[in-house]
Amino acid sequence: MPVTAASSGDPLSPESPRAVGGRDHHDHPDLPPWWTLADGATPAPVRPLPSRRRMVVQLAIAALAVFVVVVVGASFAASRLAEREAVNDAAHTTNLLALAVVQPVLQDALLTGDAAAYDALDRVVRERVLPNGIVRVKLWAPDGRIVYADETRLVGQRFALGDDQRATLAQPQTRAEVSDLNRSENEFERYGGKLLEVYRPVWTPSGAELLFEVYGDYEPVSARAFDLWRGLAGVLASSLLLLLVLMAPIIWRLLDRLGAAQAQRESVLRASVEASARERRRIAADLHDGPVQDLVASSLAVSGAAESARSDGRPRLAATITEAASTVRASVASLRSLLVEIYPERLADAGLAAAVADLARPLAGRGIDVVVDVDEAQAARLGEATQQVAHRVARECLRNVVRHADARHVVIRLSAPDADEPVDPRRPVVLSVTDDGVGLDPARLPQVEGHFGVRVLADLATDVGAVLRVRSAPGRGTQWQLALPVEEDR
Prior knowledge:
Number of helices: 10
Structural class: alpha+beta
Number of strands: 11
Strand order of the largest sheet: 1-10-11-9-8-7
Helix content: 40-55%
Radius of gyration: 47 Å
């Protein structure tokens, strides 16, 4: 578990309001900052397997989403394909009309504006060209002058030919495209949306070259695209439906197997936990009924021997025997603490206060003054698992005191938060372990993350959603603080 201290910008900075000495206004200004090892966030719960109904619904939604995406893509593809086919058809139709209908009736007099030549062409265009889905016909001279149009207002006007139009005249060919109706010569075609534009060269009897241009209706493109889309959508819908029908029993079978596998894993886990609990219970019972009772009896016997030696006027021997009795009693306390660790359910019988007092007795045997202040009313508000975490954290902190702190005084307190302790009110039971040992340089606190014991403490706190913090300074001791979540008031 990473060690964190809080800051507005850096989780390891002591300037954060979350780090008590960084510096929180609730704390004394001369105290070192708090460093947070566990922030109260509980691990994400294990997600159970989804139900069959949910899986089927999710599969149906996924299939629907795929269908929508594919249909949209198919619509776009159908539109492009229909447009391409319509453009090709328009080019083919225009070639036939130009060569078989228009060019045979062209006269050279049309270039000079002869009315008879114009009328002859106009009659053919209206009778044989426009009925073929054509909405506009134009004949251009190479200089950009319109020599014929079924819209008479265009005749005689001059517009600059586009690059494609000039290229078509230079190298005779047929060009077809969706028309850009924003050009100035399309003033009278901007009324029905897009049009198909096709142009190619034609020649008068004397060989004069003209540009034959027609604009076709775009509606057939839309109708063709809809027909293509309808066919594709039908095939896709039936294919996806068939896929769902084929996949449903497979998924149902897979869910059955996953459910059976999960039930088997849970059964094995329960059996393992129960076997482990039985074994721990057996070991605890063997220790309690064997070595612990023997050591208690030995302690009583040694204490009696010390009294006898003292009565016989042998004080030095009495002192030695008394020290041995103290050592035996410390061993008994250590074994009792070990019993609580091996079989934590004993906390429910002995109580958290007695269990913590057992943890403190070995320190007293080492000449360390230990004060244990456990508020039983507050301890009763903690759940069983939370009490076990409090016990284990207290034990690990006391081990650190023995191994590293060189302390003379230790205070263990479990109570409601004091007014000067900025603890989240949602976690109102606080366990604190304070010593007056050598302390630790705050600059080294981030390195605490590398210590296995501290990682274990942080993991324990995280398991129950507790907040674990520590603060220390050279020569000023160390203080651990565990803010524990409580059960609902009973």
